[in-house]
Amino acid sequence: MTAANGHLHAALTLAERGVPVLPLREGKGPMGNCRTCRENVCGGRPNMKTPGPCVCAAPCHAWAAATTDPHVLTSAAWAPAWRQAAAVAYHPGGAGLTVVDLDNADAVAWARRSLPATRNVATTRGEHWIYLGTMTSPNAVRPGVDIKSLLSYARWLGPGTGPMAPLPEVVRALAVKEPAAARPASRPVTAAVQVGDGQCPHRSPAYLERGIAMAEQRIEDAPDGIHKAVYRMFLAVLSAHGRCGCLTDAHIKRLFTAAQGRGESLRHCEDAWSNAVTALGM
Q1: Using CA atoms, how far apart are residues 138 and 271, in angstroms rounded to an integer?
Q2: For the CA atoms of the chain, what is the radius of gyration?
Q3: Distance of CA 140 to the CA centre of its chain
Q4: Exposed, middle or buried: residue 25 (CB in 10 Å: 0-12, 13-18, 19+)?
Q5: What's the Cα-to-Cα distance from 29 to each of 88, 223, 278, 281, rounded to whole Å?
Q6: Residues of 98-136 as b/e, b for ≥16 C-beta within 10 angstroms?
Q7: 53 and 44 in contact (C-beta within 8 Å)?
């Protein structure tokens, strides 16, 4: 059996059990959008609860492409993706599950001290702890710990060991951030980052639209290190358009929405934006 056939066989087995699956490329990232869906011109986005109006037959849109339909998984449109696949992923939230991704030995030790025992799966650097129940999917809830459930995907690494416990409140609480009132006063996030006469040197609204769409896509496609990816994209957009006054609150909201779709909190988005503004001397 070839690697591609092995991945497809594993995906079909999971699909039979009601687990939505998708192929992953080298580097553990999802397959990129096809030409028709590039930069989400089709309207479908991975940070939506469904692929939106897009009816693309290919495995586009990251986790939102995950399916249990064997006819889709074995279709001609998915065949090139299986030939490229380096692994199989699944949508935990679509299967009614939450994965606590423990990325190193310290995180595993913390989980053993702090969380109820449940099914665990060994990963390259740590463990996945799998609970019954769903929740949001924030990243970096503590050092070396991400949560993958709704609007997210996790790599399939085998069935694991131990019985599955119900999702405990202690895990849900990891996604709760401090109220904004408890934080020191910070620079407000605003589109009014303008220097000069407000004329865009590029003279083209299409240039800004392409820049925002590209930043959204790169945030959505980032395989890991989402904090750094969000900051880099915010910095890139601000460096190109932050001084000429063409950015609007609607543009900023689009970037924040893409980041929050990958598990970033509003607080992290605000901090990343403020840090980018400060770094550029605005």
Answers
A1: 16
A2: 20
A3: 12
A4: middle
A5: 10, 5, 31, 34
A6: bbbbbbeeebbebbeeebeebbbbebeebbbbbbebbbb
A7: yes
152/138 Cα distance (integer angstroms): 9
* pLDDT (tens digit per residue) in 41-96: 776 655 455 545 577 888 988 888 899 999 999 999 999 999 999 999 999 999 99
pLDDT in tens, 141-192: 899 999 999 888 999 999 999 999 999 999 998 887 644 444 444 444 554 4
